[in-house]
Design a protein that fits this description.
By secondary structure, the chain is α/β, with parallel strands linked by helices. It contains six helices and 13 strands. The protein has a single domain, classed as Rossmann fold. The structure holds uracil. It comes from Lusitaniella coriacea LEGE 07157.
Length: 220
């Protein structure tokens, strides 16, 4: 696989631990949800490195002046959770980026055709120049949802070079499509898995992330 975009798989025991919890089919929904919160937190931590708009300044300690680095609170920043499953990463991301605006995008895929349609779009008509956008999409499977999301964002003025994606599991096919259409992207994922089954699920993956996070799994 030759990719132009950059994919980071953090080599961090907390990321690996919570991925293992999320993958385990015996993990109950309430713990699955906690695992996704933690993955949202640590993947956001990794994604925000060299991306947050830091400024050099000085602060006065009780003893002397000290050089300091602070986040520019005026720099526009947005979180875009891709519903439903992306909501499970939101809490962890918001703890690190509390000043970011959150714009919800609801996408659903037809389980037969695997085509994606949008049922909720709370994106602004236009993003301010230089807006840093973090997309929360746990499963990069066929690539259809994330490509639709990126198209919606770039139509509204978002700069792909300032967009970062956090996902829990990514498939090579999704990464390939993203790389062809958005080579400037940076993606942070806990794991790249082998591929997809004939129903478009990532293998070994973790199953249906939305159903597991919201307790709506039905036995087949
Ligand atoms: N969506 C999921 O929730 N899981 C997959 O494996 C693929 C898409």
């Amino acid at each position: 696989m030759t990719l132009q975009l950059r994919v980071y798989v953090p080599d961090h025991p907390l990321v690996k631990h919570w991925l293992a919890v999320a993958r385990d089919r015996d993990t109950p929904s309430v713990l699955f949800k906690s695992a996704m919160v933690e993955l949202g937190r640590w993947l956001t931590y990794e994604a925000s490195r060299y991306w947050l708009p830091a400024q050099e300044t000085t602060v006065q300690t009780p003893l002397a002046e000290a050089p300091a680095t602070v986040i520019d609170p005026t720099a526009p920043m947005a979180l875009v959770p891709v519903l439903r499953a992306g909501l499970s990463l939101l809490e962890g991301a918001q703890t690190l980026l509390p000043l970011a605006a959150t714009y919800h995008l609801g996408l659903v895929r037809n389980e037969e055709t695997l085509e994606v349609s949008c049922y909720l779009n709370k994106l602004p008509p236009q993003f301010a120049p230089q807006t840093r956008i973090l997309i929360l999409e746990p499963m990069l499977a066929t690539g259809a949802s994330i490509l639709m999301t990126l198209n919606e964002l770039t139509q509204r003025g978002a700069d792909p070079a300032l967009i970062r994606i956090i996902s829990v599991v990514a498939s090579p096919v999704a990464l390939q499509k993203l790389s062809e259409q958005y080579p400037q992207l940076n993606i942070y994922t806990a794991m790249i898995d082998e591929g997809l089954n004939d129903r478009g699920y990532i293998v070994p993956g973790l199953g249906d992330a939305g159903d597991r996070a919201f307790g709506t799994l039905t036995s087949e």
